[in-house]
Amino acid sequence: MGCSSNNGAADDSALTQQNITVAASPAVDLAGLYIAQDDGLFARQGLHVTIEQIPSSQVVGAQLKGQVDISAQSYLPYIEAQAAGARFRILAEASTLTPGTRALVVRAASHITSIAGLARQKIGVNGTNSIGTLLTSAVLQENGISPEQVQFITDPKGYPAMPGQLQTGSWAAALLAEPYVTIAEQHYGDQELADMDQGATENFPMDGYVATQAWAEKNPKTAAAFVRAIQEGQAIAATRPPVVQAAIAKADDLPSLVTVVMALPGFPTGPVNAQNIERVAEVMLEFGALGKQYTAEVEDGALIRSMIS
Question: SS in 3 state form for 198-255?
């Protein structure tokens, strides 16, 4: 797939841990991870990476127990845990929202044709108090609908099952991520009601690579080697869409009919941008995912700074 050099390769003997486990689910937002794995970028850094699919609701607990070294998912549960006293470190950014990568969709025959039509309706999401719930809440509010006027229903099987579940009529709409937005449109003729990349959530930070602070401090050279490989993967993902499509087709066993037309997120490179991640904490505070007692820490940026080396 992509190409890279050996510049910056780690000295294997200097790594305190060469075998690391990363919790992640195949998604276009994490293309940098799968490219780094497929292209041997981790191996060039002296790392052997095992990617395990673990339900997002269980990842934080698994990391705190030492069962997972690094996770690749939404910042939301980590910011929540950090506020409550846990200590995590954001190693690198994975993705940012772009048009089409998160969308509210309705069935082809739905009578709902606008955001206003969602009042007093059920909306399917992939997790309680998830990033999808926050994005939807923000878009609802910007369109004059209080999030309290809708009922969010979590599908325990997550995004892969949601396009099919929407057809049963259990919900009026569903918040989907790519490639499942495209799958819903292609397989069922579902219609996009609203794109999440608008207003307060435009270019919103979505996913990142996170370790416990204890692990990062115990294994600084391993963490640095992981970040170097991820940065190479991110750079490829940001500039070579066909490589992203191939990586996700392989990781998620998808046909090219889906991957060649799916929308791609932004793939940030470089040091973690604290000001950007603070946007997540601010929206969490606004919609109750963080308690008001954390207002000062959010507003002065101390909460997010504590998560970035």
Answer: CHHHCCCEEEEEEEEHHHHHHCHHHHHHHHHHHHHHHHHHHHCHHHHHHHHHHHHCCC
- Verify that 77 and 211 share a domain, yes or no: yes
Q: 8 in a domain, yes or no?
A: no
List the chain residues with pLDDT less than 50. Answer: 1-6
Q: What's the domain range around 237?
A: 15-96+204-305
Q: How high is the pLDDT of residue 253?
A: 87
Please tell me the pTM assigned to this model: 0.90
pLDDT value of residue 16:
86
Q: Is the CB of residue 227 less than 8 Å from the CB of residue 94?
A: no
* Number of domains present in the structure of the chain: 2
Tell me if 1 sits within 8 A of 38, measured CB to CB.
yes
Among 142, 174, 201, the domain boundary falls at 201
Residue 164, φ and ψ in degrees, nearest 5? -70, -40
215 and 85 belong to one structural domain: yes
Does residue 270 contact residue 100 with C-beta atoms inside 8 Å? Answer: no
What would the 3-class secondary structure string for the chain be?
Answer: CCCCCCCCCCCHHHCCCCEEEEECCCCHHHHHHHHHHHCCHHHHCCCEEEEECCCHHHHHHHHHCCCCCEEEEECHHHHHHHHCCCCEEEEEEEEECCCCCEEEEECCCCCCCCHHHHCCCEEEECCCCCHHHHHHHHHHHHCCCCHHHCEEEECCCCHHHHHHHHCCCCCCEEEEECCHHHHHHHHHCCEEEEECCCHHHCCCEEEEEEEEHHHHHHCHHHHHHHHHHHHHHHHHHHHCHHHHHHHHHHHHCCCHHHHCCCCCCECCCCCCCHHHHHHHHHHHHHCCCCCHHHHHHHHCCHHHHCCCC
